# Entry
Amino acid sequence: MQVKGKKAAIIGLGSIGTRIAEILAGIGMEVIYWSRKSRNDKFEYKELREIFKTADFIFPTFSVNEETKKIITAQLINLMKSTSSIVSIIGTNIFNTDLIFDKIKNNELYGFAFEEANSNLNNL
# Structure
């Protein structure tokens, strides 16, 4: 898949999210973001619903805690295009992984890439 010209969304524009956004912009992707606190004029701020409706790739990069575990809801995941993917560097415990994998199996979502030290996702 050619990623140049695709829309990448960063959720959580701290230092890691900002660096990922810079790299993605450097390879020709359009970068949008949502962040609770941070703002950056280099990239376009969007509300979460708009991000999930329009992004081709979604990169959650926020710190995981009890409050932020609730940011990515099933309702947001259900807004995603069938050609979209989630790329998570913060694990899987913030997602309804059953919903995501069902959507992938039914061709309602393109992909899900994640980094997980102790994965409990045995039925992939």
Observations:
- The chain has a mean pLDDT of 93.
- The chain has one domain: 7-114.
